[in-house]
Amino acid sequence: MNAGEKKSLILLSALLILLAAVVWNVDELQSWWQDPPDPPSSVPPLPKLAADMRKIAEGFSQITDLQAVPPPLPEAWLVVVEKTGAAHLLDTATGKRALLLEKTVATSSEQGLLGLAFDPNFAENRTFYTNSVVTVADQDFTSIDQWRFGGNVFGGEKATEVRIILRIARPYANHNGGQLAFGPDGYLYIGTGDGGSGGDPHGHGQNPLSLLGKMLRIDPHLRADLPVEVTPSAGNAGYRVPVDNPFVSEPGYAPELWALGLRNPWRYSFDSIGQLWVADVGQHQWEEIDVVRPADNLGWNVREGAQCFEPKTGCKTGGLVEPVWQGRHPRHVSITGGFVYAGSTIAALQGKYVFGDFGVPALFAIDAEPASPTSQRPLYLVAEHKLMVSTLGRRRDGELYVGDFNGSIWLLVAADSPR
Question: What is the pLDDT of residue 22?
Fold first, then answer.
């Protein structure tokens, strides 16, 4: 072999290695913080519901969460959370806005300030909680933190960070989950991703001792008159474990677990009858929606949606819970969970679970209480748009906001409403 042939062989080998690296990391390339793929152009039309969208604000940056404030704060106020570490208070009636908090967070890939939840006893304790990714001594952590609301935010009084509730070490920058929500039982639910990369290489989703790839349920309230009946697995005194969590008496299970087998739960919510609706972002082919109950195993990474993932065929499905709906690429790319509509102004959305997709310019809905079998619920088109839907929000009266990652906020309205 002469020098020219050797040089060509070396170049070809380098190209093959690069191609292999791209294929191996295709999940990261599809990260929903990156530019989404072109919208699908050859999928059959969907039945359209009579709904529309009206812009109510713009000028924010990389929106990750929208949260209505609780009483006694004014009903028109909305918290807008940004990936880079800020949360703003927006008066939707006047357009006035103020900085609620600033936090130093990691911002690579899908990291950032990702979620916020107000304490159910906010009227008395003025506290709320955030979910973010922070870096400490070169290690990334999911960090759940408690804050105290400022008395006069529009006068410049920002919230103050009170204490760390829980930290979970993370091996990669993606699949952080990131939301927080208090259930009707008063406990805090934390949706965690599987830790990242692609395909769950460390097996967190099915590891009952790992807090990654799970739905966690904790009590963040510390009171001297309440003993800690269950020792937190994280060795953290910042929270209590509810004694009725489904795995507290199971050897080999972290007591914080409410459900397992999640890949990257991106937005979840409780409906009016207390059901927990979770949208779980898929790997390469299937997006799914789950109604999650205590001790459920949603299947990742044995399954993606209702299909075998590891192994590709003949996977063991015993004990795995079916999704209530699944959607295949390319109509769906990276699901953004929403809410069962509880408003009164859009008749077409009554009885529907409304959700979005970060990479597809449309809002969708499925029947919340169908007669059809699991994973076979009909899909509806709610509205078409030109947004990158990163979150939905629910107003106190049940009407729904839509958050665009690029900085605008929209309100879902009836199709005949004035813009």
Answer: 36
